[in-house]
Amino acid sequence: EIYTLSLHDALPILVDGPGVSATARRGLVEAARNKFDQLKSMAHFLAPVGRDSYTWDQILERHGVVVVGTGPSRGGGHQLTSTMTQWLTAMVGFTAQAAVERTCFGWRAADRSVWMLCDEFKYLAGYAPEVAKWWKDDGRSYGVRPVFATQYPVQLNAVGPGVLTSFLSLQTFVSFRQDDPDAAETVARQLRRESTKIGRASCRERV
Question: Which of 134, 85, 142 is nearest to 109 (CA)?
């Protein structure tokens, strides 16, 4: 026979059930407890005292503007560690994308937009690659308009398969002068593609 249990009923058995030693029990909860303890140190970021809080869904419905900064602190206070920057960036990416899927279906057809601007795409892509690609590859029907920037496009190759391709397939491509040879070659190749598209479009218009 096959029996099923809800997670609520199964968790006490997994943690406290027969055959679960104290050492094993500690291993089941220690990692999660450590992460929660570290997140508690970021209470000022996640739930600042004295400020109103809003869900992503509320912000989207109101067409609000949110600026999230997980980089170095200008004033030196509340400086994030590299690990905490990784966690918070990934959390922002996953929760925002999930909220857009819940809230914004059909927005493109209704002529409503969600602008996603990221001034260092490699960090968002590095910590949440599937989410990073979703904004460009699957977000269109939700009204998503992504604007992404990165210093070295070739670094995106190391993040995950398809990340650089997704980044370079954005409709408008702008680049400053590149001193790094690999970055310069990537940019030049992309600009040659763009110029070819423009040339073909001009020919069609003349015809």
Answer: 142
CB 46 within 8 A of CB 54: no
Helix, strand, coil tally for the chain in percent (to 5):
55, 5, 40
pLDDT digits (tens, 9 = 90+) for 147-156: 998 888 878 8
DSSP 8-state class, residue 153: G
Tokens 């940019």 sit on residue: 187
Name every residue whose Cβ is closer than 8 Å to that of residue 146 and which is 6 or more positions away in sequence.
Answer: 115, 116, 117, 118, 135, 136, 139, 170
Task: Give the Å distances, CA to CA, from 133 to 29, 60, 101, 154, 168.
Answer: 32, 20, 14, 16, 11
Q: Is 178 exposed, middle or buried (0-12, 13-18, 19+ CB in 10 A)?
A: middle
Reading the block at residue 112, the tokens are 């409503």
pTM: 0.69
Rounded Cα–Cα distance for residues 24 and 30 (Å):
10
